[in-house]
Amino acid sequence: MNIEYMGLRLVELPLRSPFRTHQGVIKQRPLIIVEVADRLGIKGYGEVTAFAEPFYTSETIQTAWHIISDCIVPTIDFQEISHPFDFPELLSGIQGHPMAKAGVEGALWDLYGKQTGQSLSGMIGGRKKHVKAGAVISLNDTEAEGVKALEEKGYERYKLKVDKGKELEMIERVKQVSPDLPLMIDANGAYTEKDIEHILALDECGLTMIEQPFQAGDFFLHQQLQNRMKTPVCLDESVMNFHDAMQAIQLGSCQIINVKISRVGGLTAAIKIHDYCAHENVPVWCGGMIESGISKAHNLALASLPNFSIPGDLSGSDRYFEKDLVTPGIRLENGEIEVPSLPGIGIEVDISYLERVTKKAKTFRL
Ligand code: OSB
Ligand code: MG
């Protein structure tokens, strides 16, 4: 791919309103934007979506900065890469840190698409031209008002973050304003084995699924719950790689998987999980990370694959940000978002805004 250069930028995007879950509040969104360039000066962009604090997975934006700068750049020979699929194989000596790896791989995919004149969706075999949009309602939004406003924008699926003990009230409040909306809850591991009866009481609510009830790593407990519950269990934090997806499905720990490019270590791994789930008749959907339009564009390409048959956490730029890092921003039309068809991620990065929100930058000759 004739890669010559990598640039890292730590940016901070202000959120329109604080995003609160049972694990804490996010007001500013730090992200790392990865830029790679080839000999001709063609550029590709990726994004590291780790959070400032390790509440979701163990990585942080600072550990990712360190891993890319001090481990990936010095030890990987970028001249050996002739296709983005080559990159994950070169990483076998670096354990863990999927989000750091995914950010770099994402930039390679965008660059490869631009070098060869292909859209990211086209390169990976995506078929859908539009994908359905889904919204997440944080604990800061009042459910009724939050859902009404989002319904007017056309979102097709709604996800409530769990506040343990208040689930029934929250679900009831949404149903009062919008009785027929597809609704699910995301516990982010808020429950323990003592809560099984409490969770089973939600089985009559008609939820489309319950996401990550228990902590990551506990395939057994999720299996026990799914055996007793008709509402599908969906796993998020539990699935950090292909092997986790395989074990979860073979053990019957879930009926649905949330695939995030960042959490599983890159687009190559995300596609492999998609393909395996398709083979096993397990539907998947694309998760979100409160990310910029750069990462959203990667998500749209992934979600254009056929087994992404459930609306994901795919929202417009205006859901979280006043202004996005891409122009024009990502928009909903009739509850759907267009999958970009131009080369690479197919969306223009707003370089002057990117420069304005940069807190720290570093460049490397590769
Ligand atoms: O579990 O998907 C999650 C936000 C922060 C940490 C974890 C999660 C989330 C979301 C937001 O649900 C998804 C989005 O709309 O980007
Ligand atoms: Mg989740």
What this model shows, in words?
With 366 residues, the protein is α/β, with parallel strands linked by helices. The protein folds into two domains: 134 residues, Enolase-like, N-terminal domain (Enolase-like, domain 1); 216 residues, TIM Barrel (Alpha-Beta Barrel), CATH 3.20.20.120. Helix content is 33%, strand content 23%. The chain is built from twelve helices and 15 strands. The strands form four sheets. It has a seven-stranded parallel beta sheet with strand order 5-6-7-8-9-10-11. Strands 3-2-1-15 form a four-stranded antiparallel beta sheet, sandwiched between helices. Strand 8, helix 8 and strand 9 form a beta-alpha-beta unit. The N and C termini lie close together (12 Å). The mean pLDDT is 96. The protein binds 2-succinylbenzoate and magnesium ion. 2-succinylbenzoate binds next to loops.
N- and C-termini, Cα separation: 12 Å
Strand residue content: 15-25%
How many β strands by DSSP?
15
- How do the helices and strands follow one another from N- to C-terminus? EEEHHHHEEHEHEHEHEHEHEHEEEHE
Considering the protein shown, what is the CATH homologous superfamily of the largest domain? Enolase-like C-terminal domain
Radius of gyration: 20 Å
Shape call: globular
Q: Class of the largest domain, according to the CATH hierarchy?
A: Alpha Beta
Which architecture of the largest domain would the CATH scheme give at its second level? Alpha-Beta Barrel
Tally the structural domains.
2
